[in-house]
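In the current project phase, the collection of sequences with tokenised folds has grown. A sample record is quoted in full directly below:
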Amino acid sequence: MDTILLVDDEREILRDRSRIIEDLGYRCLTAKNGKEAIQIIKRDRPDIVLTDQKMPNRDGFDVLKATLEIEPTIPVILFTGYGTIDSAVHAMKIGAYDYIQKPFSPEMMEIVLKKAADYRRLKKEYLILKTQVEDMQRLDNLVYRSTIMKQIAKNVMKLAKSDANVLIFGESGTGKELIARSIHRFSGRKDEPFIPLDCVALPATLMESELFGFEKGAFTGAIKSKPGMFEIAQKGTLFLDEIVELDLQLQAKLLRVLQERQFRRLGGKELTSVDVRIISATNWNPEKAVKEKRLREDLYFRLNVVPLFVPPLRDRKEDIPILVHHFIDKYNPFSPREMEGISGQAMRCLRKYTWPGNVRELENIIQRAMSMTDNDVIQLEDLPEEFVGPIHGEIDESLTDLNFRDAKGKHLEQFTKQYLGKLLDKYDGNIAKISRKAGMSRKTIYRMMKSYGIKH
């Protein structure tokens, strides 16, 4: 629960507005002048400061300046009944989050406080991420923070020093090709070609010519000779993606090349020597693929000199915040607007999702959100329905007969009744315990119970 510090020298305004703030679900502290407010800010570090501009004993500008010195991430909102353009500009220049003129409605207060709370959470998360930069690791295009990915990065550097064939396996979208590229980039072959070949991209007849090349006249349409991927990758690395999908007869021919380090082009007679490192990848469990006769056992042992398993994103969710900000930075140059980050609510939603498409799906979602949002921060509503749904659940169908404002109020009423009812049952009507658990004052609990007709 966010804490709001309300500062005003008028007692009635403090009383009335603090009640509104608490009804909106915030904890409210009050101060009757700037001096008292600054002491509270030093002691309690509220999440938001809402202060009158004109007050005796240090005014709102003094509160603003002191807050920025004590804790720069706290948004300060100034309000006044004597607003001028000059004072508003001055407030924003010295760092006010917002500047509003009295009188303002509860609806306006709700909007302003919600935006300020989102801003505060975003700033805090940004600072946390900033302090985590030293812990964040980057290997080529791989960005990670999890312990398991750090170990993979260490293994990549070890593998780069050898020439052993590597079999990378894991679910689709986990970054197997990026890992293969990193192995190549840090290897002794880094100045030679890295050639990726998707084994499901072509039928078997064309895949053979793609791998080994062909001579002129080898088949209808072969009007000139063409080198294959083995020749193009000479001295470098050939990356065979989805190796399990390669035709079994082609697997036998690939095995012979790996054993003899020689091959013939289709329609050719001369043997060509080859010096190529093979890195292969599959989204199958390799042992299961061998057992089900999808992958030749003898080829498996040739390819699997060093196995490397890449875990799914759902098993390393601590990487999600780092990846999100990496993708925002990546796509900002191509975005309609400069994105500053992502809201805490949206980030929590991403962390709860199971990510069947792994890192590739996360990148797609961030790119999509950046293209569609009207904000400079990715919000919950910018994410697809399947991401939001699991967190918020279904709403009562009858609410769709109401306008948005009435439906929202009705939905909030239903939630509040259920929430307080469950707490009353759980703690046998002990308001003190309920107050501590809910993070609200006992006065607010009683007022809400009275408002919604809840008895205990």
User: Anything to note?
Assistant: DSSP finds 19 helices and 18 strands in the chain.
